[in-house]
Design brief:
By secondary structure, the protein is mainly α. The protein folds into 2 domains: 82 residues, Endonuclease Iii, domain 2 (Orthogonal Bundle); 104 residues, Endonuclease III, domain 1 (Orthogonal Bundle), CATH 1.10.340.30. It has 12 helices and no strands. The chain is globular and about 50 Å long. The two termini are 28 Å apart.
Length: 207
């Protein structure tokens, strides 16, 4: 059983709310990714767009530049990347990331040896990579079990629905709520995202 599955099992055994989410929506699919440039670039592409849009942009990138490696990404122009579907800001971020890896200012392979805060510090030094992107990389590429992206809107909506709150929790309130789910907050987040998708945009279960 994988780490996320183990965490989810531990949580639903002790937490009635997450057990209810699991009963309603079933088990979430694994969201693990291989660590490296391609996974981090894909997370950057997925920022603030729908799942479908992110998939389409990634497909356009693969079709346009063939191999999304640091070397190729640094070689092509911003306009080439924009032609693949990236916004100007994300194209700039992709090139900043590629350059940092190639000049050695970011040791992407070495991140696995750092603690969570160390990884966040290293990644958010890259222009265009914010805390959410770094947290998603920690969760799904590095497999860290206790990451909680409290600024994520879907998590806030899911918590509001699941816990029957009077209003949507802000990031500080979400942090407080998630304290009960340590040391498996990654698993809790994955379950809540899955529950959010299951209940749909209007909060009704999808059939």
């Amino acid at each position: 059983m994988g780490g996320f599955d183990s965490g989810l099992k531990a949580l639903i055994d002790i937490d009635a709310d997450l057990a209810s989410a699991y009963k309603a929506a079933g088990a979430p699919a694994s969201r693990k990714r291989s660590p490296g440039f391609a996974s981090l670039l894909r997370i950057i592409i997925n920022q603030q767009v729908s799942v479908q849009a992110g998939q389409a942009i990634w497909q356009g990138l693969e079709n346009g530049i063939k191999a999304p490696t640091p070397e190729v990404t640094l070689e092509v122009s911003i306009e080439d990347l924009r032609g693949c579907g990236l916004s100007r800001a994300k194209a700039g971020c992709a090139k900043e990331l590629a350059g940092a890896i190639l000049d050695g200012s970011l040791d992407l392979d070495g991140l696995k040896r750092l603690d969570d805060d160390g990884v966040l510090e290293q990644l958010t030094r890259i222009k265009g990579i914010g805390r959410w992107t770094a947290e998603i990389y920690l969760m799904f590429a590095l497999g860290r079990p206790d990451i909680w992206p409290s600024g994520d809107l879907a998590l806030a909506v899911a918590a509001e629905r699941l816990l029957d709150l009077a209003e949507r929790p802000d990031p500080k309130k979400l942090e407080v709520i998630a304290e009960a789910w340590r040391p498996w907050r990654t698993s809790a987040a994955v379950m809540l995202w899955h529950y959010y998708k299951h209940t749909g945009p209007m909060g009704k279960a999808q059939r």
